[in-house]
Records
---
Amino acid sequence: MLLILFDKGEYLQSRYMRTTESICPICQKRIMADIKEVENEIIMEKQCDEHGFFSEILSIDAEYYKRLERLDHFVENTVAKRKIKDMGCPYDCGLCPDHLTPSIFVNIDITNRCNMNCPICFASAGSTKRLYEPSFEDLVKMLQMMTSIKPNPPFAVQFSGGEPTVRDDLPQLIKAAKDMGIPQIQVATNGKRFAKDKDYLKRVIDAGINTYYLQFDGLCPSSYEKFRGYDTFPEKRIVIENLRNFGETSVVLVPTVSKTVNDDELGDIIYFARDNFDVIRGINFQPLSFSGRASKEEVKRYRITITDLVTRIEDQTNGEIGKEDFYPIPFVVPVSRFIESLRGVKMPHFTTHPQCGVATYVFVQDGKLIPITRFVDVEGFFEYLNEREEKIRCGGKITKGIEISRTLKNLGSFIEKEKMPRDLNLLDIARGIFSSSEKEYLAKLHRKSIFIGTMHFMDPFNFDLSRVKRCAIHYALPDGSFIPFCTYNSIHREGIEKQLTTSINE
């Protein structure tokens, strides 16, 4: 029996879920795939005529997988598209005409050089023997192309690599992005140079960096030895202390997570963030992606899904943070739709696929972790915003004014003030987001909380074209194209690097 998908993402209960398109992990040929419920798990099954049958776990909990689908929100976006080839998705990335979600978060690889030699890396000059390093001028052009996207340019750029801090001109790049008005400027780093070179770190700070995406795989030496080749945890401590001494307060810990390696450290990572709350503002768990060469056996051994991850977080925090506290990324679309109708301006919408990632806000009080769901009726609030947005959008000037006033007045009904952290005025923040500048008040929210999320990036084994088409995290390239994260690392990276790199031996 075929599972029917309604407009609001509500599924009829069924054992068979849906058919999608995927790729063969060996030859990368586009093939059909079935996503099925089997013994309360969700699996992907696909068959390549040449390389045989593949079965991949997507979720250990079928009901939780369906919950994420039910909480999905999708609206039409204006997407800047260009047709490069005519081979179809996922080969015509650029973005191709099939893409549904605009660039919201842009990665720019500024080098593939690195000061480490991580065994799990998929972007390394040392392993490819080829150097990718755009000139400063080319990188500025990429930033300019990013800011010229209409109607809404991406709100964030992340300088990545390789290791971006091996470039001495990173501060100048950050300043160039700042001067262009990009709201969020981030650097994805292993922190090695920031630990050793305070003068360089100060130049990065003075240039206007907003957030540090710090590679952080746990607290145990064995985790780092497996992922990075040696124990780098002492360096992470030094980086955090250096940032603290400079007054920096926006670090996001980025743990690569794998079964049998560090999946028993998720709770400890969260508690480390709690204990360093003055500096750390978020954790972005990233399940290990098998974009390089990996056997079926290795994938099965190390694969961890979103459901695995949130279940372990619940267990390892003794229920302080539960898996039901997490929501899929597109769940926040009602907020951007409401602001769009309220102000009469086009807003970007986070219409990523519901299986791409989940997140929550957690507040710290007296050493305890308090998820936002413990004092806010989150689902009721978003349902209410959906209803009010339709009234505002469809009504006349008088109706609009009445609905806006009514909405702002009723926000407090979704908050249990007696359970809210003492130093938090969430109602004031919510009204500020809707009535004035959402950026200012969202910043207040982030300063009061730890954002905990995960992005489950795909690889050729679990590749799903329905997810690709809704990707909002894109790589910017010198030719002006923007390529979805998962297609870039699963399909396009090797070919692009051959075109744009030079041999290290030359």
Note: Residues 1-13 have pLDDT under 50 and may be disordered.
---
Amino acid sequence: MKNSRKNGIFWLGAIFFGLLFTLAVTIAVAAFWADKTFAVDFGAMIYTLMSPLKGTGDDTIKSAIKDCVPPILAFVAVYCLAVFVLCQSSVRVTLVTPSGRRRLNLLKLFRRVGALGCVGSLFLSAAYADRLLGIGKWVLGRMQDTTIYEDYYVDPNTVSITAPEKAKNLIYIYLESGETTYASVEEGGRQPVNYIPYMTQLAKDNISFSDKETLGGFISPTGTTWTIAALFASTSGLPFAFPVGTNEMNQRESFATGVTALGDILKNAGYQMEFLCGSNADFGGRKSYFEQHGAYTIFDYYTAIEKGYIPADHYVWWGLEDAILYEIAKDEVTRLAAADEPFNLTFLTVDQHHSGGYVCELCGDDYSEPLGNVLACSDRLLADFISWCEQQDFYEDTVIVITGDHPRMDNIFVDGVPFEERTIYNCFIHAAAQVEGSRKNRVATTMDVFPTTLAALGFTIEGDRLGLGTNLFSARETLAEQLGYDYLNNELGKSSLYYITNFS
């Protein structure tokens, strides 16, 4: 009876400490994988990983399973083996001390040391994860309050926004993970070769706001470093700072009802609105956002199947490849341009998405790194589309805005590059505004794109500020210039009751 009780206690302890050890190993392995896989802040990781799987590509899931499960199972196997050994009959040794002989149960000692080791491993793994991912800094930020919105937010409904006499069409192209880092060092990037030569020349030939004299762009602060956050920030002038767990905003009845966004303003000005993407538009709440802020017609992967662009069983990467997406964009632009009203076609590419990008049939193999071939291919596809636009009747009356959405979320080509130096590409073609003075080279963020896009279309904005963004065509300082980027970024990482109350 006594032995049976001891055995029961032993196995309960073994299970309990085994769970602690497994948790510790899982935290450490997951932190290592996340640090290797993602090149963005911890907040972006949280929102991305907590987003439902509906509409996602399977690359991240496969990577997590392949890289995390084997080492976790290996460590658990070692633990189970150790428990098996320690559950065997006791091994006692005799120690000779000044006070006499003393018998020591060696296996019992090992059990106690092992139990302490399991507890200690949990604390060590937590510290390791914090060092890699900055978890503590993120949590501390969320525990603090900011007044940035009370102090600097400009509600579009409280200032005069005047439309031009003759409305210009808008084609807005979001390039997935579109960093300037992909250019050569000589052109302002960080690569030995220029993977985006067309985009580089396009920026030189048109208006492109840069943080330096060579190719550069704007910075992605906290709350703008993943897709829906970037789309939201660049069209509303606000970071995505809704509570964790609301990345899939289409699960809610409303998406940011207190916000007046670019789509709302253009819709009220009589624009036809359409959002096009090659994946499931539901992912991250994109469908909800664009439907509720501008009544956009949504054209996504499933629409492409319905309209016969791809067969029902066609699924690559996140849905359909960019080569097909650009062909759909040509058809949709042609249709929209045939109507009497001005139009806004906004579309989002996907082939450059992490991890590593999608190598399509057109990519070729000029470079040893697959992502290099993806970037070069994306550059050529964009060149072909812009060239096609130039030959169309609507071209002269159309503003084309090209920006990246957010920085790369893996480390390929950007490992070791300081985050604030990984700027986002931008180019404004046929802008109806002129840059005041010598303000083309400046410190800007994703949020500044909102009023800047309106200005490019010829809208006049009282005070040249909307949301937390500044019209970059004006001489007015951006908040990043006025307050300093580090200060602004830290404030955006804090909690705000004002934000939740007024914008949700």
Note: Residues 2-37 form the longest helix (36 residues).
